[in-house]
Design goal:
Helices cover 36% and strands 27% of the residues. The protein has 205 residues and is α/β, with parallel strands linked by helices.
């Protein structure tokens, strides 16, 4: 009987701890990576407020939620990400990451792109099923499409529809397989046109 009570108490405590973790995390929904003129990595992350979206937050504390975007540079992708994290009061969490956007400057540098890809592959927080996109400028990461909470959510919703001939879906797993087998890949393109976000065309790597 004592064992059962102890297990029950442990579960209750575990639930409370999970609640604290929800408030202590900054949930990244979109990650954008490009190359700077100084051959550094430029990283932009879009953060969503999960607690607020699910109705668990309050108006009074919404200003301290670290939602929005963070951007930084570094000699590696993870260094740039870590610098972004240093500028938030919460730990970055990539378990809900929906899309990764690569800039055209990074795609033009094969070695830097493969290094960035390896960083994603080696980090267990990054799902192999997340969407891969390419764009002229990663600042599009800061845009919020109408009717969607983030750029990543927009891409996920878009690909649930039949868009024959306009674009195609590519996951991190598919990208890794393509490069492993052929040394190249075709990446769907995302762009902004007069304030509207469009998925059309592609980039060849």
């Amino acid at each position: 009987m004592r064992i059962v009570i102890s297990l029950f108490c442990a579960l209750l405590l575990s639930g409370c701890w999970d609640g604290k973790e929800l408030n202590d995390r900054a949930y990244v929904n979109t990650l954008a990576i490009d190359k700077t003129k100084d051959s550094e990595y430029r990283v932009c992350i879009s953060i969503s407020d999960i607690a607020q979206q699910e109705g668990g937050g309050h108006e009074d504390d919404s200003k301290d939620r670290n939602k929005g975007t963070k951007e930084h540079r570094g000699s590696s992708v993870m260094e740039a990400i870590n610098e972004c994290e240093r500028r938030t009061s919460r730990s970055l969490f990539f378990g809900h990451l929906q899309a990764v956007l690569f800039g055209k400057e990074l795609l033009s540098d094969r070695d830097m792109f493969l290094e960035a890809l390896a960083a994603l592959e080696q980090n267990s927080e990054f799902s192999r099923k997340m969407m891969i996109l390419a764009g002229e400028d990663i600042e599009i990461c800061e845009m919020t499409p109408a009717g969607e909470p983030s750029l990543g959510a927009y891409a996920v919703s878009f690909y649930k529809k039949d868009r024959t001939g306009e674009t195609f879906e590519l996951t991190l797993e598919e990208l890794l397989i393509s490069i492993s087998k052929t040394g190249s890949a075709v990446i769907p393109k995302i762009e902004e046109d007069e304030g509207e976000i469009l998925l059309r065309g592609s980039y060849q790597f």
